[in-house]
Structure formats: C-alpha cells, structure tokens
Amino acid sequence: FFETMSAFTTTGSTIFGGAGNPDIEDVPHAFLFWRSLAHWMGGMGIIVLTLAILPLLGVGGMQLYKAEVPGPSADKLTPRVQETAKRLWMIYVGITFVEFLVLLPAMNTFDAINHAFATMATGGFSTKNGSVGQFGSAYIDWVITIFMFLAGVNFALHFRMLRGKAITVFRDTEFRVYVGITLVATLLITIGTWAPAMGYLPSYETEGGFLGYATFMESLRYGAFQASAIITTTGFGTADYEIWPPLAVGIIFICFYIGGMAGSTGGGVKVIRHVLMFKNSFKEIKQLIHPQAIMPVRLGNKVVSQEVMKNVLSFIVLYLGLIGFGTMAMSFLGLDILTSFGATLSSVGNVGPAFGTLGPTENYAHLPQMAKWVLSFLMMAGRLEIFTVIIVFVPAFWKR
Known about the structure:
- By secondary structure, this protein is an all-alpha fold.
- The chain has one domain (about 1-60, about 80-400).
- The chain contains 17 helices and two strands.
- It has helices spanning about 1-10, 30-55, 75, 80-105, 110-120, 140-150, 155-160, 165-170, 175-200, 215-230, 245-260, 270-290, 305-330, 335-350, 370-385, 385-390, 395-400, and strands spanning about 300, 300-305.
- The longest helix is centred in the N-terminal third of the chain and has 29 residues, at about 30-55.
C-alpha cells in the first residue's frame, strides 16, 4: 500500500533496498514498470484535476485559477473540461516521449522509459538503488535536470507556448519567480559545494568526509540537479546532500517547502502561493505605515480578491499544521525528531527523500508499520491539496 500510494501521489518514497527487502535491481521489471506507469498516471491526473475539474467544482486549493488571478486558467484553455483534459494529455505524452528519445543514447530502453515517466510526473522512482547518480553520466544528469524543470512548469503555460504565445509565458509572474528561485538555489548550492574546496569560503570536513567538488562545473551539475529535483518535488538523487556543507544543506532544506508551479505535476506549497503570501505580507506592513490607504494585492495588472487571499493563507496554515501533526505522530512512534520532521515534510510535499535516516541514500523500509500508514495518508493529503481531502469528511458536502 505504501509503495502504491507513493507511486500514484508521485512521491517516490520506496521500501526497496533495505531492511530485508530486495534491491531495486533485483525486483522484476514488470513491477518496476508498473511503479513508473503509476507515477506517470498520477502526475497527469493531478494536472487535469487542478486545471480542469477543481475550479469548476469550486473546491480545493486551486481557486487561484479563477479569473481573479491573471495567467492561464482552466476556462481559458478550452471551453470544455473534456477538451482541456485531451489537450493536456497530448502535451504530457509529447514531452515524455521527447525525454525518452533524448535519454536513449545513454540508457537502455527500459531505463529510459521508466526515468522519462518518473521525471515528467515529478515522481522520482528509479530503476537503480542509487537513483540517477548510479549511472554516473553528466549527460543523463543534465537531460533529467532540464525535463524536471519543465515538469515543474504550469502545463497551461506549455499549452500557450505551443500556440505561439511565448511572450505571455515570460510575462507570467509565477513563471518568472519559479525560474528565479531555481537559478538562485542552483547558484547558492554550487557555491556552497565548490567554494570551500577552492579556499574561497572556510573549508571544513563534514560528517561524511566531504570537502567540496574539485571543479565549478561539477558543483554546478550536482547543484542544478538537486535544486530542480527538490523544488519540483521529483526527488531523484545524484549526490548525498546530507554530507554537503551547511550552506548547501540549508538551501536544500528551504527547497523542500517551495514546490513547483500550480498546474504542474509538482507537489509542495506551489510558487504562486508563496508569491501571494509575500505580497500580502508587504501590503500589511505598508498598511501599518499608511493605515488609511487602500492597498489591494496585485498580481500583474489585476487585483487579487480577498477570497483568493483567504484561500492561500488558509492552505499555508493547514499545510504547516499537517506537518506539525505528522511530525508529532512520527515522534510518538519512536523516530528521532529530524527523521520525523523530514519524513513528514517530504511526504506532505510529495518529494521522496528526506533527512536523518531517510536521506537520499536511504529508504523507508526500516520505519514501523504504523509510520508507513501515517506517511501514506500525508502523501494523499498533500497530493490532493489538503482542502480536497478535508471536504470529503464534511457532511454538508455530501448533502449538496
């Protein structure tokens, strides 16, 4: 159940490779393919759910995609849900197929199709115990980095790009912030893993004996990959980020909370919510200085309604509350606080790897059985935008 929930929610946490379970390479190919296919179907499902269905029902955290917020929305894609879903599927299949073809020169067919599925779904299941890093190929790392970034982009923007409206894509506030966050995170991780070895920053040996990468390009390769993997919640690994210097580890930790763009296959809080939260915070500060002024929150040239702001802030509070609940539950089951917090943060955000005994080189096999049930629930709640799960338990919803 844990492995299946992890697959369909595109989390990528696995129990294989430890605690008496077989290594991933020893698992039948049919099972590995099913995991990746479940990833891929789950990734497409959340796109259609968030862009085409939830806004029409008026439930879930994706009310951002109503007319109050500029940028592509469900009703702006095509007038009918069925047609919207069809077009999104075509884009999703097309990008997946392109990645498969690009990976073929460096992978066999089985590995290429599995990693293409897992990348576009921002899932993270690999056919290797050591994830993508086990291939030891810079070419593979860069290809998957690029496609992870694309998977974290709102698929409505892919639709607009294909229609020749590239200028509107680059004007999209969330897209520009998403690009900026990815570039800054990549740069800081690169500096954090290269500068100490070069003597530009204080050099010290970390717990794992890591002193830094020898060249800037090597640091950039690993930095770009891990930044994209965590921000988009894909969760692939090419390096053990827990043994990196504190600056790099700190950036990775922050990336866990960001998430991809709304309307992408990525999990997490989503970039648009962070944008609106910060805009609202700055507005409140200005309001203290000018209490009589009318200062609406704007995104682009449009005013964001109070309903949308309330939705965003409520979601963030619930998201943090769910992390707090999960951390306490995991601690109650006997896990240390770092592992408890990391597992919860990773599961709610659908990332996969975490911290402590669940780092990028570890797996979830050793956790107590009850902990796996708790994390499975957290994966589902995070993937369905929390509100969608809560509303199912509200009697009034079923009476309508």
